[in-house]
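Task card 7
Instruction: Convert sequence to structure tokens.
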Amino acid sequence: MSNSLYNHAFDLSFEVPHSPHEDGYECLVEEKQKVRAALLRRVYSMFGDSNEYLEAMGCFDSFCEDEDE
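Output:
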């Protein structure tokens, strides 16, 4: 096993129901509390008794931190 350390970027999908905004960006800007609540619900539900998080998240970028030095 190498002594190198890596940085991984993950994405996570979640939904914000019952928004009056047609545009998703407007929802992010105008409904910050609703977006935050939806994200927290999703995170808590993913890490329950199942391994749902393995399917709900994706890694879209990785790099070796040693290369920055």
